[in-house]
Amino acid sequence: MKLTAPVICPACEAGPLRVFCEMPDVPVFCNVLWDSEAKAKAAPRGDIVLGFCAGCGHVYNTAFDPRRVAYSPHYENSLHFSPHFQSYAEALAHRLVETYDVHEKDVIEIGCGKGEFLALLCRAGGNRGLGFDASFDPARLGPAPEGLEVIRDHYSRAHRDRLADLIVCRHVLEHIDEPLPFTNWVREAAGLRSGSAVYFEVPNVLFTLEDLGIWDLIYEHCSYFSPHSLARLFRRCGFSLARLYTAYGDQFLCVEARAEGPDLVATLPGPELAALSGLVDGFARHHAAKIAAWRSALAAWHSEGKRVALWGTGSKGVTFINVIPEARQLAAIIDLNPNKHGRHVPGTGHVVTSPTAHAAGSLDTVLVMNPVYEAEIRSQLRALGHQVDVRVV
């Protein structure tokens, strides 16, 4: 599979993207699990053909087809079952409320998922919350704070008349194939109420490139933002940046902005724009070797009779299982999220199990898909009586 025509960068609309990495035939949805092995193995697939924009530092899947991606209540990407993530989310909600004095005011969250973070923002400041998400399931939220409403739809320009003092958009922009008009809509909405603040959070492509995070590449994410491409996009849309920084072990890229006022961001995290081409080239050279190394390791463990489990069926875990053929022989797939238990991984059909489903001594090695959860998982394994070799993938 090769790119047949140049694709213009959707973030800056400048020159054509330079293709540097291809991952064919991956699941369209990593975050949709299935109720049977057969359905999971027949899950829709697509291609990833990554292109790099030297003009703004953006990375984009040139093979992405938005018509293949339809979100529903079956979409399951909540991280709030992790105590580590829940602590991060609570601290973030309180900081945003205090920094921007969002007390007894209006908050909008675009792509609110199951509504957990929007509820935190409402409780932290006694606020009224309005969420937008096509995958929202009201049964999952539980008792909601008074004044919280969710519209089961995608946010669009048609909704810009819904005013807010704080607009939040976390892990949504990377799913949108036309980020420029979308960000313009948000800028228009923020400008309708004086003093409104905006918070966006996306995966940080620098973490992926620098750490050879092959498992971060998924079809659902058509865009991969660098600090440079995110800053340029927001400034082009008329935002003034208040902060732009990394969080969550440098895996997240965060921007706080206003529709008016001075731009306060003089320097960006990470390397200069000119240095990104080198990171991209290094990723292109070494990603095949990393895959080969993990194939060899899993094959060796299997030949030795080792019982190897993988912990984490988010995007990283599902990608790993599908990209590494030897992962078909894993003894167990584990996740904390009870809504995933008993369901099957797209592409391979593995069944997802609870940590408590495995007796002490039944496993030899546990693969941790995200380094930020290593300490939490080690603690949970000890509490369950496991003495295992823990490896961060």
List the helices and strands and how they pair.
Blueprint: E1 18-27, H1 37-41, E2 45-52, E3 59-61, H2 83-99, E4 106-110, H3 116-125, E5 128-132, H4 138-141, E6 148-151, E7 166-170, H5 179-190, E8 197-203, H6 205-210, E9 223-224, H7 227-236, E10 240-247, E11 252-258, H8 273-303, E12 308-311, H9 315-323, E13 332-334, E14 352-353, E15 365-368, H10 374-383, E16 389-392
Parallel strand pairs: 4-5, 4-7, 5-6, 7-8, 12-13, 12-15, 13-14, 15-16
Antiparallel strand pairs: 1-2, 2-3, 3-9, 8-11, 10-11
Helix pairs in contact: 2-3
Q: Care to describe what's here?
A:
- This protein is an alpha/beta fold and 393 residues long.
- It has a domain of 119 residues: Rossmann fold (3-Layer(aba) Sandwich), CATH 3.40.50.720.
- The chain is built from 10 helices and 16 strands.
- It has a 7-stranded mixed sheet, with helices on both faces. Strands 14-13-12-15-16 form a 5-stranded parallel sheet, sandwiched between helices.
- Strand 5, helix 4 and strand 6 form a beta-alpha-beta unit.
- The longest helix has 31 residues.
- The radius of gyration is 21 Å and the shape is globular.
